[in-house]
């Protein structure tokens, strides 16, 4: 790549970030179905054509946003697994991190984990367009597997992993949706939900 091309790419990055930030906010506030490329263009003060220079359609834009969230979470998962050897402690740290990510960036969490869309239906795997999400999900399943007896079945692993994730996601979604509710001390609440779920693993 020549110097001119590198300069042009660098100039395009702020606009791409502007598009992604605005799209994340719109998706989080209005839902996938209610956001159009034209509405996004109006929000940032550019023409739809400008957005199409960066993303071919709404699906690509949405998947780019989900991948950002999954990449961040996967990075944190890998770091936890590498530095926290006992499986149960690693799993708890991963689940605590999921809650913390949601509270740190509610819009990213909504888009990554709470958004309804037409991208996943009965004919497509949930991870068909979502390889980072699949890797993230598999890391959690592997961590759960390490917490279970060696003779645990695949069904045991699947149900257990989904149950601890469901408990954690349920808590995170509630905290994001009702931030002013009287939840009590968050550290105690997180511990009661997450530690209880993980300690119950047979």
Automatic annotation (TrEMBL):
<keyword id="KW-0238">DNA-binding</keyword>
<dbReference type="InterPro" id="IPR050109">
    <property type="entry name" value="HTH-type_TetR-like_transc_reg"/>
</dbReference>
<protein>
    <submittedName>
        <fullName>Transcriptional regulator, TetR family</fullName>
    </submittedName>
</protein>
<dbReference type="InterPro" id="IPR036271">
    <property type="entry name" value="Tet_transcr_reg_TetR-rel_C_sf"/>
</dbReference>
<dbReference type="Pfam" id="PF00440">
    <property type="entry name" value="TetR_N"/>
</dbReference>
<feature type="domain" description="HTH tetR-type">
    <location>
        <begin position="13"/>
        <end position="73"/>
    </location>
</feature>
<dbReference type="InterPro" id="IPR001647">
    <property type="entry name" value="HTH_TetR"/>
</dbReference>
<dbReference type="InterPro" id="IPR009057">
    <property type="entry name" value="Homeodomain-like_sf"/>
</dbReference>
<dbReference type="GO" id="GO:0003700">
    <property type="term" value="F:DNA-binding transcription factor activity"/>
</dbReference>
<dbReference type="GO" id="GO:0000976">
    <property type="term" value="F:transcription cis-regulatory region binding"/>
</dbReference>
<feature type="DNA-binding region" description="H-T-H motif">
    <location>
        <begin position="36"/>
        <end position="55"/>
    </location>
</feature>
């Amino acid at each position: 790549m020549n110097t001119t091309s590198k300069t042009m790419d660098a100039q395009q990055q702020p606009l791409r970030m502007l598009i992604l930030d605005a799209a994340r906010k719109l998706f989080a506030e209005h839902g996938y179905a209610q956001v159009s490329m034209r509405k996004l263009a109006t929000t940032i003060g550019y023409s739809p054509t400008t957005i199409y220079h960066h993303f071919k359609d709404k699906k690509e834009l949405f998947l780019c946003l989900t991948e950002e969230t999954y990449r961040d979470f996967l990075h944190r998962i890998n770091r936890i697994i590498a530095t926290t050897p006992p499986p149960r402690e690693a799993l708890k740290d991963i689940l605590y991190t999921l809650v913390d990510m949601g509270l740190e960036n509610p819009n990213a969490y909504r888009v990554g984990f709470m958004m309804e869309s037409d991208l996943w239906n009965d004919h497509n795997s949930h991870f068909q367009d979502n390889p980072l999400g699949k890797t993230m999900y598999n890391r959690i399943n592997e961590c759960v597997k390490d917490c279970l007896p060696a003779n645990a079945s695949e069904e045991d692993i699947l149900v257990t992993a989904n149950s601890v994730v469901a408990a954690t996601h349920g808590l995170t979604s509630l905290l994001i949706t009702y931030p002013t509710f009287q939840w009590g001390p968050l550290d105690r609440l997180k511990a009661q939900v997450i530690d209880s779920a993980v300690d119950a693993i047979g």
